[in-house]
Each structure stands twice: as structure tokens, then as C-alpha cells.
Amino acid sequence: MSVRTVSLLVFVLFSAAMLGLAAGAVWMVMALYLRHPLPWLALPIGALLAWAIRAGVRPAGTSAALLAAGATLLAAFYVNMLIAGVLIAGNMGMGLIEAMRTAGLGMLWHLARMALSPADLGYAALGMLLAAWLAWRKPRRR
Fold it and tell me: Is residue 108 a contact partner of residue 81, using CB atoms and an 8 Å limit?
């Protein structure tokens, strides 16, 4: 593999990860504003991630589908960990960053996993499938 290929692969993975994390943060803001977990947002988030990846990271195809599904999964995990951090911060009277640093990644992961319901997992799976399908198919010609 050439240096160009490796650097392109790193850029593509980094871009998909950052899009997933940004989508998870936006999802958390909406969930906190409405005071509900909003697991159904995995569907529009997945669609937006598929569109963003297909438009700016990879052309439509299998690699774009895998990246979009992975970014959607990352967004779903990230929003649950952020909400766990917000709950810790609210219960302990701390700031969000301080609570997340104090709790650590392991505790946040366990709290997020304990709070997951079958509906959360189902919506995340549907969002991943939708994202993969939208990123895989070629756009229509007008």
C-alpha cells in the first residue's frame, strides 16, 4: 500500500468518526432539550450521516455503506454515554466535563449499557440499516 492510500484511509475513517460523534452530540442536545431519550432519532441521524458520507467522504457503494452504518452506531453509543454523563453531573452537582472525567470511560459505558432498552437497540439497528442502504445506493440522475 502506498502512503497516499494509507493516508486516504485514515482520513476517511477519521471523517466518519467525527461525523458520528458530532451527530451524537446534536442528538444529545435535542434529547436534553425535550427531556426524553428520543431513540427514534437514530433514523434521521442515520439518513443525515449517510448523506454526508456519500456527499463528502466516499462515493456511493459498499465502503460508504459501512462507514455510514459505523458512524450511526458510534452516534448511538456516544449519545448514551453523554446522557449517562449528564445524569451523573446532575446528581452530583458537577459540571459535565468534570463528571465525565471523574466517572471515566468504563463507568460511563456501563451506565449507558444498563440504560439501553430493546427499543433503543432496535432503533439503532434500523438507523444503521437505513444509513447503509442510503449510502450504498447511487443517487438518481435528473
Answer: yes
Q: Is the pLDDT of residue 13 over 90?
A: yes
Cβ contacts of 131 within 8 Å, gap of 6 or more? 46, 47, 49, 50, 65, 68, 69, 71, 72
Instruction: Give me the pLDDT at residue 29, please.
Output: 95
Q: pLDDT at position 138, please?
A: 80
Identify the CA nearest to 80 among candidates 49, 123, 44, 48: 123
Look up residue 66 and give its three cell numbers.
459501512
Q: How far apart are CA 124 and CA 121, in angstroms?
A: 5
Tens of pLDDT, residues 64-75: 999 999 999 999
